[in-house]
Predict the structure.
Amino acid sequence: MLFLLTGDVQIGKTRWLGALADELASEGVAVAGVLAPGVWRECGPHEASGERGLAGEGRFEKLGIDNVLLPAGERVAFARRRDLALAEGSFDPTSQSAAAQLAWEISDDAIARVNAHFDALARGDALRTHPENPAHPENPENPADPARMFHVKHSFAQTDVSRETSRAGETSAGLLVVDELGRLELMRDGGLTAATALLERGPASGFPHALAVVRDWLCPCAEERFAAAWGGAEVLAPDERARALVRAACGLSA
């Protein structure tokens, strides 16, 4: 079964998925792939927002995006808001994200690291070898990262996913997660190409189910590209109905 988790920006898709991954792993389901938590800064009471605006009821400004590689829990600094990257001198005009004129500066090196992770998943390597105590390093440019406050359950999920999936031999109903598919993947055949290759293959013995996060306006592109390989796709919002559907697909009661 292929699930497409969709909706507008900053509605909590990644937080919802992180909590679900934690829940599934605690019940013996192997969860692997990538989660994309935001990097946030708490704003002062009279502080103006950046060009991407505020999230968290006006308390936080989104600075960037990390990628957390599951099941090991390795954290990769993935994207920086474009205006900040320009101001800081980290903007690369030759990057894939620059060529696509994205609002985020995405490191090509980070893309390569995440693709290598999905390549390892395709071989089965990433499920056989991962640390017992995965590290979740703070962003060096934002050591007091308010994402810790904004994603408390999500951070907990990352730790439990890695520990529980090491014992997940009792079930084959694994879940591949891809957070997220964007313009690079769906409109330019770039970005996380190893992840899209896995999705194009359809169900595998280790991962009979997959869940990909995609913006609502890109969801038709994702359905057209991947649904046939999976015998269709179920479009989800981050809610209780979606949780019940994914649990049922993985052989768990609602």
User: Anything to note?
Assistant: The two ends are 17 Å apart (CA to CA). Residues 130-172 have pLDDT under 50 and may be disordered. The domain at 2-37+65-78+104-128+173-250 is CATH 3.40.50 (Rossmann fold). DSSP finds eleven helices and ten strands in the chain.
